[in-house]
Amino acid sequence: MSRGSIEPTDEPAGPASEQGERGGHGASARPGTASGAATGPRRTAAATPATGTDTDTGAGVRGTASRRLPRRLLQLYAGLVLYGFSSALLVRAGLGLEPWNVLHQGLSELTGLSIGLMTTLLGVVVLLAWIPLRQRPGLGTVSNVLVIGLAMDVSLALLPEVTGLAVRIPLMVAGVVLNGLATGLYIAARFGPGPRDGLMTGLHRLTGYSIRLVRTGLEVAVVASGFLLGGSVGVGTVVYALAIGPLAQLGLRISAVPEGDGGSRVVASGNAERGTAEPGTAERGDAEQRTADSGHRAERGPVNRGTADAVRGTAAVRAARAILRR
Predict the structure, then answer these.
(1) CA 281: distance to chain centroid?
(2) Under a CB-based contact definition with an 8 Å cutoff, are residues 66 and 186 in contact?
(3) Where is the composition biased (Basic and acidic residues) (predicted)?
């Protein structure tokens, strides 16, 4: 193309461009002109698709979360029933129980009530202690109190008494393994921690002592009290203390529910990867997340609501995973 054909095109473009850069206050920016007509539709076209896309994304996330609710409920109650069954296996093995069940068994010996009923009654007492500690129970918290003790008593009624180490040792190992997997199963459902775990995190926040110190103090107290009342302490108690962290982490990995923001899986990470976790860490993270979520909602309205719920679900799982530290 020749120079003569380019110059007529470039000449008028300069002034129009300059007027546009000045903010459109000149004649060319008035409605009805070619420049004003071109600018308006472009703004509308850019804004409309973005709003529609964000709304669709938020609705899609919420829809995905709703579809996963039945799975989470099934996982919660399957985990709690399996937990009660695994505890019954440890009772039948007679080689030592997990710390809290040492106390439950001791109280059962003292009162004549079944160990499952004592588990439920003590769970109610511990849950009441949440009130001054300002802990908030979830569906999983209340279900933990009601289901585990019942499942334990039913399992003990069905399981026969056993004798001989050749049977008792495998029962103990099966009880510890299933208990760890059951813990990961119901924690990953993200319906809230158990009452005893909430007591631990509440005391941590109230006293300022580390989670490790609070947990150790509580479990030493309940094991000693249970032992004095006639509860079973033995090799099973030690094996449980050493193995429960890694086994629960495995359970979390196996049973993690995909989040609603794109199907990512919640798996054990951070401290939990090392076989430990820190209850209370997640509460702090959850509070920070709620603050961030509020800012996002104010900024974008309903756009991020579903994603924020999914993120809070992730924080809840991490909080619950933190329970496993020994």
Answers:
(1) 12
(2) no
(3) 281-302
What is the radius of gyration, based on Cα positions, of the chain?
A: 30
The distance of Cα 79 from the centroid of its chain, to the nearest Å, equals: 14
- Whether the pTM exceeds 0.85: the reply is no
Q: Find all residues with CB under 8 Å of 80, minimum gap 6, and list them.
A: 143, 144, 147, 148, 151, 182, 186
**What would the two tokens of residue 279 be?**
């209850």
Q: Does residue 74 lie within any of the structural domains?
A: yes
In a domain, 22, yes or no: no
In a domain, 108, yes or no: yes
Tally of structural domains, the chain: 1
DSSP annotation string for 28-74: GGSTTSHHHHHHHHHHHHHHHHHHHHHHHHHHHHHHHHHHHHHHHHH
- pLDDT tens figures, 131-156: 988 888 999 999 999 999 999 999 99
Which DSSP helix (H) or strand (E) runs through 290?
helix 281-300
Using left for φ > 0, alpha for ψ between -120 and 50, and beta otherwise, residue 262 falls in left
Q: Alpha carbon of 326 to those of 220, 274, 276: distances in Å?
A: 12, 11, 7
The residue segments making up the domain with residue 115 are: 68-324
Helix axes 115-128 and 139-158, enclosed angle (nearest 10): 170
pLDDT classification of 259: cutoffs 50, 70, 90: low
Rounded Cα distance, 160 and 150, in Å: 17
- Token reading at 245: 């962290």
